[in-house]
Amino acid sequence: MRKAIDTFLEKALIFIFSLMLLSVIWQVFSRFLLKSPSTITDEISSFSLIWLGLLGAAYATGKRLHLAIDLIPSHIVANRQKLYDGIVHGSILIFGFLVMVIGGARLCWLTFVFQQKSATLEIPLGFIYLVIPISGLLICYYSLETLLRKKRF
């Protein structure tokens, strides 16, 4: 299952990055060569950046590519390393669930209830913010999978 999620995320990140790149190229082309700037490219770029950043954070968590400071782990004796890793991954799991999944779902729900839409494309903002609970679920999955795989709980 993990390999399927990793592959899907890799392809989604490439697609989102390509979409963002194409929207920026189109904006430059339409502004300077056609002398008629596009109005939708700003929103596409902004929304792509949000999705790219949050899904990228989940991907980095799963691949353990995120920034880490090893000041504390390097000073922990070997028999305490499991406890430290359990605390770190447990904290990530709790944060991902409480803030990103629950808080993100509440944010999406509120934007749908109040019918908030983007200015130019008039996309319901709930669809844009949906990436927050999705990324939270992915971060929770990766953290839980790491805890269970390494038996660090």
TrEMBL record:
Main location: membrane
Superkingdom of origin: Bacteria
Cross-referenced Pfam families: DctQ (PF04290)
Transmembrane segments: 12-29, 44-62, 83-103, 123-144
Ranges where the Tripartite ATP-independent periplasmic transporters DctQ component domain occurs: 20-150
Keywords associated with the record: Cell inner membrane, Cell membrane, Membrane, Transmembrane, Transmembrane helix, Transport
Subcellular localization: Cell inner membrane
Membrane topology reported for the UniProt record: Multi-pass membrane protein
Record bears the keyword Ion transport: no
Entries under InterPro entries matching the protein: DctQ, TRAP_DctQ
Entry-linked PANTHER family: 2,3-DIKETO-L-GULONATE TRAP TRANSPORTER SMALL PERMEASE PROTEIN YIAM
Entry similarity comment: Belongs to the TRAP transporter small permease family.
Protein name (record): TRAP transporter small permease
